[in-house]
Design a protein that fits this description.
homodimer, alpha/beta, Rossmann fold, four-stranded parallel beta sheet, three-stranded parallel beta sheet, 11 helices, 43% helix, 12% strand, globular, Asp_race (chains A, B), Asp/Glu/hydantoin_racemase (chains A, B), amino-acid racemase activity (chains A, B)
């Protein structure tokens, strides 16, 4: 082997939240890497363990706290050789500080990755924001976006219900049923003036296929791809524009 | 958490061969699981480390032996809590016995999974066989298929070159360029009488999208999906027919 042994210097991925988003992150990381053969890709280890209690319920006071389960997953990744960790779940980032304090290796932050992606895309505000009830209510994105000078538009009650329906359909393995509610929420945000929309839950990019991203008249930023781009940048790799998304 | 702690009783996945196939296996495992929410899915750990030397080159005497790197990946999965391991790479199974002897947890066998899938699909022979030069030359599938009573048709020189081109395009992140050579090989096998075709390299299912599988007039069996179905069966889960492939 060329540089290092298998199992050393891995990008750890704390997935399972949900599991399709975790697997999709691993796939998009590969697809966005400039590579001509297997050995050119970033070594990665995906812990796709879905037994972590629901993040949104917990944050809204209705369920078990997921922190211990997330820390168990992070420890598994650290022990197995991760030197950097990505967490493809926006809601999990409500516990970011608690996780980062107890983890020896750096944790990427999905909100910073999305904010950087908005700049890469040259997005102009107002920025429409989609996500889970917990992230929208607790302001995971609102403050960082405003700190970068963006005006933010959040969904109304109907829009929030559409986000919830789209996310639930993806988690129930029915992605085709997720498109319409997600699209309706995007359209409503654009009708209210949004010039860019954050797909700020990692199920939402799976609800809106890449080949349907152009039909909304707004820039869409995809929190799975943004996090993959951030990971590649930290690994010294510039993301490629894939021939096919 | 309900049944077990995060990191215990995981399905280990020795991926990286190639990395898109490893990630696709993780995604198809999720998509094929009957589940209504995150916590219903099979806990999985994907070691997607592409630094394993090329399997086909090594078997044809032109490259470094990948066995030690594969064993390092298997040990990582065992130490991290895997209780069953799947290897979504057909060519790697040329080292199956050597890996199984040195691994404490059971390793699924992709060829058995594909043979079981042919029975599930009610496939009739002759069976056309696609794969890497090493698996076709060394007969990874031919003997097991004949042992189950199937007549086998292997690609001619042009068909083998088409397999190689399709596999290389997927590994180079250009899946759209992989379709035509893969399709040409399938068509030629069908023209020679094949009533079913084995996509017997885990890059090949990525070359032929699910929504184009019906246009060949033959049953296609997908070694990624077959292995995912075998894993689900061993976990006591019957694979669902996904609403969208």
């Amino acid at each position: 082997m060329r540089e290092a042994a298998v199992g050393q210097g891995l990008l750890g991925i704390l997935g399972g939240m949900g599991p399709l988003a975790g697997a999709a992150f691993a796939a998009r990381l590969v697809a966005l890497t400039p590579a001509g053969r297997d050995q050119d890709h970033v070594p990665a280890l995906l812990c796709n363990d879905p037994r972590i209690p629901d993040r949104s319920s917990a944050r809204l006071g209705q369920g078990e706290d997921p922190l211990q389960a997330m820390l168990a997953g992070l420890r598994l990744l650290e022990r197995a050789g991760a030197s950097l960790i990505a967490i493809p779940c926006n809601t999990a980032h409500l516990w970011y500080e608690q996780m980062a304090r107890r983890t020896r290796v750096p944790l990427l932050h999905i909100v910073e990755a999305v904010c950087d992606d908005l700049e890469r895309l040259g997005a102009r505000d107002p920025i429409g924001l989609m996500g889970t009830p917990a992230t929208l209510k607790l302001g995971l994105y609102q403050e960082p976006l405003r700190a970068r000078g963006y005006e933010v538009i959040v969904p109304d009650e109907l829009g929030l219900a559409q986000c919830v329906a789209a996310i639930a359909a993806v988690k129930a393995n029915r992605p085709a049923e997720a498109f319409e509610p997600a699209a309706a929420c995007i359209r409503a945000l654009v009708a209210r003036g949004a010039r860019a929309v954050v797909l700020g839950c990692t199920e939402l990019p799976l609800a809106v296929p890449h080949d349907r991203r152009d039909e909304f008249g707004a820039v869409l930023t995809d929190s799975i791809d943004a996090l993959a781009r951030a990971a590649l940048a930290r690994c010294g790799r510039e993301a490629a524009v894939p021939a096919t998304a």
